[in-house]
Amino acid sequence: MQNIYLDNAATSRMRKEVLDAMIPFFTEEYGNPSSIHAMSRTPRAAVKKARKQIADCINADPSEIFFTSGGTESDNWALISGMEMLEKKGKHIIISSIEHHAVLETSYYLERRGFRVTRVGTDSGGIIKMDELEKAIGPDTVMISVMTANNEIGSIQPVAAIGKLARERGIIFHTDAVQAFGHIPLDVKSMNIDMLSASGHKFGGPKGVGFLFVRKGIKLPPFMHGGEQEEGRRAGTTNVPGVVGMGLAAELACKNMEAANKRLIMLRDHLIDRVLKEIPYSRLNGDRKKRLPSNADFSFEFIEGESMLMSLGMKGICVSTGSACASGSLDPSHVLLGIGLPHEIAHGSIRITIPEETTMEQIDYAADCLKQTVETMRSLSPLYDDFLKKQKA
Ligand SMILES: *Cc1c(COP(=O)(O)O)cnc(C)c1O
Question: 115: CA distance to ligand 1 center in Å?
């Protein structure tokens, strides 16, 4: 049986061209770009090219791109070093209530260190409440960090409006764009973004490499201490193959974005239409319009997400549940609870995120399997049985 991979938000397949571009930097061109002899020349030029490939995707200058080990490091760096840098001005940071754990856990760490954090809620579609965000701003607010697009429910935040507000109030604006970069258009200038995190493996590049965009003029102190790499802002020998792969993946993703999204939206909407029409007591989580082209997140009443995941797995379908991130715990995700789902419904949630190469046949097969699985599981559920009896009565 062939697996159908519908978990692209967890990680994406690396493109063949990307692997091909990386290989020479593991083999003949293994030199350290920071050396000053002949063997450093080609790696150094390749890293320079990657920096430009990435900067071009978001209308940044190459000097504003700093390579890291991934999205988690970029988020930690932006928030922790950012707040340390701004501490004298104020100790308050505002984030959304549905951030990725890389931001959320960092915000708890900041609280333990004596910073003040406000977590602003969202509407039922997972879009941040702008009026509450504005009200949360005080004289000591120095940073706002709101993700560009949510990793579970795919909701796309009003980043340009947040950027404008932050800039007017003299507040630094960071966005975790790990799910958005390479997937939806981004422009750090017109959106007034001061710092932006992204990760290679979420857009067809390798794992273990990412970057942080830091707007010129912001003197973000280093997070990793050591050598003088990345203009002294991020120590550690450059991951040349990773950076080269991520650079090419960025260029390809941004070049193909329009065509890919047209196709993804068609596949996604077909899946959503079928599920909502054919499976009773199902709902789509996240905003219907302002959502990532690849994301369909559903809740099914009277169903347990984990069992559903296993049953789908036996049919070769690879998806996630909403609670997958909360390592080991059976609590539903803070995102689903954040948009107001009751516990029992949040428990019956699965996330489908579609890779570009998926066919319509595979989407139809997935929809058939979902329907079958939900029917089978409900037929075994005493809760559902009771519910039907009450409906008849
Ligand atoms: C995957 C992800 C991260 C973490 O990125 P890594 O490169 O895996 O560390 C951070 N934020 C969001 C929104 C993500 O989806």
Answer: 23
